[in-house]
């Protein structure tokens, strides 16, 4: 049950002063709480024996007042230390999770669902916070307070009565331990179900346009209803076990009360204890309800926290398939070279790139074309270091890409993906994401290069217009041009456009290409596209088919030879004439 505490030992060691202070204050608080019942018993005995004077009465009241005030401040102090520590842990682990998410390669997200990862970063971290906060409270308070009460009952009243009243406790501990193990299993299942539901909600929101276009709202709603019902059922399975804790505690406590009242009365009749001591004993017994109930909560909280911590550690301990270089080499320029590169995705059964050899000098433009699924994006991903390098060599500036860290490589690159991911912020913030310290003049220049100046004027709030979740509030062409502006404002040594002009018209495409040609003198550019007009100016064009280069050369050279490029060129020319 306490595995979770050992797993978090590094945090308790780091915050040992905080937790040592909280434990000491909690022990002092226990003493301030157990003294009043003893004073009550003594007062009753003084009244019974007609020995209570006004002076003694006021002294007792003064002691009560001091205990209340001291207890108040001590309780405030230890609760602040304890629960502030739990918030610190949650914040620290959330930062670790975020750092892990940012460092992992795309292959990790291909195997793990976004909704499940979100559940681990929210619900599971909340359960861990509860464990380190309320869990530590119940652990220390239920044990130390219980022991303190038992010692007071034994030394100040009667050990015989105390031992008999405590007989039901071991049975409660055994039952609650078994319940705790069952809760651990069911809670893990319920959290997995919550992750599935999270993922479904995300997909539904992201695909809302498709859902409406196919009139699938009712079907999705019914599916979500089934999913939420499943989540509720699994959480209720946990709660049904959880609900057993308090009744069990009450039953055991009631049995202890019956024993205390019955055997205590016998001891009073024998003269072994006084009436005041019997009353004090019953007050102590009543005070034991909280630590007994806390023991039940303790099993529950610890098991939930343990299950959640295992899920979070599973993410934190995940190893990235893309090992980063520890070398500190810096590429002298941005000359890009592929030498007999073979590559296969980790989940693929076939080779995705075959013997790819490309030489791209500084300041040159590479056009990458080919049918759908030919490997254009796969080729680009090799430069971005998103997957482990296969066979062959990829170099930037004459240095093997494996000798360069991911950060060093990506610092040189401005990348516009075919997905055109935008953040739910303003147009300005999305473009400045490429270079947050850019001036207004540089921002305006990047917008001009992306041929987006006129569109900005038509937006409701100009650059401050919110683009919505993943750019849902703007058109596909606008999303592409914002993405291009974001890459251009970085003024990268290597610019990569991965089918990033598919949603703009031919006139806009021509303007953007011309701007890129004019602004990127002496810089390297890679353009992957289906439209041959976007790469006509390229110094080298490669035609991929099933991951293999089947043609290469300039535009003029390729239209002089039969093959895919010429066929595609003729089709696109014919389409232009028809329009």
Automatic annotation (TrEMBL):
UniProt xrefs under InterPro entries: AAA+_ATPase (IPR003593), ABC1_TM_dom (IPR011527), ABC1_TM_sf (IPR036640), ABC_transporter-like_ATP-bd (IPR003439), ABC_transporter-like_CS (IPR017871), P-loop_NTPase (IPR027417), Type_1_exporter (IPR039421)
Name the UniProt record assigns to this protein: ABC transporter ATP-binding protein
Entry function: May be involved in multidrug export. Transmembrane domains (TMD) form a pore in the cell membrane and the ATP-binding domain (NBD) is responsible for energy generation.
Keywords (A to Z) from UniProt: ATP-binding, Cell membrane, Membrane, Nucleotide-binding, Transmembrane, Transmembrane helix, Transport
Keyword Transport appears in the UniProt entry: yes
Organism phylogeny: Bacteria, Bacillati, Bacillota, Bacilli, Bacillales
Boundaries of every ABC transmembrane type-1 domain copy: 20-304
Domain of life: Bacteria
Origin species: Macrococcus carouselicus
